Amino acid sequence: MLKRLLLASAVCAVAASQALAQTPVKIGVLNDRSGVYADISGEGSVAAARMAVEDFKAAEKGLKVEIVAADHQNKPDVGASIARQWYDRDGVDAIFDVPTSSVALAINQVTREKNKAFINSGAGTADLTGPQCSPNTVHWTYDTVALANGTGGAMVKRGGSTWFFLTADYAFGQALQRDTTEVVTRNGGKVIGAVKTPFPTADFSSFLLQAQGSGAKVIGLANAGGDTINAIKQAAEFGITEGGQAIAGLLIFSSDIHALTPKVAQGLVLTEPFYWDLNDGTRAFSDRFAKQAGGKKPTAVQAGVYASVLHYLKAVEALKSASDGSKVVAKMKEIPTDDPLFGKGNIRPDGRTIHDMYLFEVKKPAESKGPWDLYKTLATIPGSEAFRPLNQGNCPLVNKS
């Protein structure tokens, strides 16, 4: 009798184990894998997603997770086509990362149509949680409002009262100029000019000469990735900072500063939501990441992919299904966020993830102790101050009353 009971228990245990393993989850990491944003996201974001699945111990919790990846080439039509194929044919439940705001807005729409989940880490436009907000989308890492509040506000307080923008001519650049202009004027500054630059572009000389000729105290770079690197390098060649004008990199990542080196970028003030050397948790993750990335430390976008995949899997585990994207996102909003890279926070009804942002200054070469020792912290900006107030984004999901 005892043997029969033991055998029955063993059979039940095996059956339970098999049942747990039957919750399929397919994650698509969609980003720039070959262009100006490849270092910011690219293969590093895929590695971060895999690390999140491993650290979550997904298999032990009954989730069978598969990760696929593709290159959207920074083109909205390409990104939307991949998303439709993933959702309709390939069984992808959620798309992560997606730098390039024009692509992100396209994915946002397709995801809502298909009732899947979109957790963005790479794009900047605050419209994702504003007029274009969706019950199927979470915006995790940063946005144009937080960047403007951080760098824009800090530069005006430092005496940068007049601004000239070099703006990437697509959704992200336009949103960043718009949101930074609002912060500059609110703090008593003035925008005296702007020029739209092709996206992407390698030659900023004519645009920089216009900015230099304007006499503005601050030249705001409303661009990112390779465009930002090229603009800062060429500004140094023109001696713009030596002439008394400041360069404000409104979206800078540690990979950009590493490429520029502190010799070129020293003194640059910037806002980021993550830096590898912030605390023990960020250092431990970054050391592991670097072993998979040829020694490179993770960017904020890659860190955002890791943290958002962790949180997404918590929601899927709770629901025991990834099939209904709006339900998964709703569950993500119910569960407080808590991870070793961004700390404790929450996801608002508009889909905005709230966490601290940081104001950094690039170290001088003499202060840097190694190739990735790049920043000194000027200030911690609480999430409640960094991001746009919930009732000011014109998100249709938010009850204004």
Word description of this protein:
There is one protein chain. The chain is of the alpha/beta class. It has two domains: 23-142 and 278-354, Rossmann fold; 145-272 and 357-386, Rossmann fold (3-Layer(aba) Sandwich), CATH 3.40.50. 43% of the residues lie in helices and 20% in strands. It has helices spanning 2-20, 42-56, 76-88, 101-114, 144-157, 171-186, 205-214, 225-237, 254-260, 262-265, 280-292, 300-319, 325-334, 383-386, and strands at 23-31, 63-71, 94-97, 117-120, 137-139, 162-168, 190-197, 218-222, 246-249, 269-272, 337-339, 343-347, 353-354, 357-362, 375-381. The strands form four sheets. The chain has a five-stranded parallel beta sheet, with helices on both faces. A four-stranded parallel beta sheet has the order 7-6-8-9, with helices on both faces.
